[in-house]
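Exercise: predict the fold of this chain.
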Amino acid sequence: MRKEEVYRKTKETEVQVSVNLDGEGKAAVDTGVAFLDHLLTSLATHSLIDITAKVKGDLRHHSVEDLAIGLGDALNKALGTREGIVRFGYAAAPMD
């Protein structure tokens, strides 16, 4: 399975994030920023990637920034060598 977990701790934040690229679109997120939780849940649902995220931070700005770094790292590592990945075009606009 293409899964990865990242732990990131700075002076401002503590971030735990995991992704499963072969998931079912499940999300378990607690970032302390309600709209960010909504965005991550929507990303998981529409991409069918399982995402878990737990963030403790001093400012919302730091929480969002460090979560993005951790999520990017987790996705990058989960993709591995990227063998077998092909690109194609498709557009959808999930509205809630």
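Check your answer against the key: The domain at 3-79 is CATH 3.30.230.40 (Ribosomal Protein S5; domain 2).
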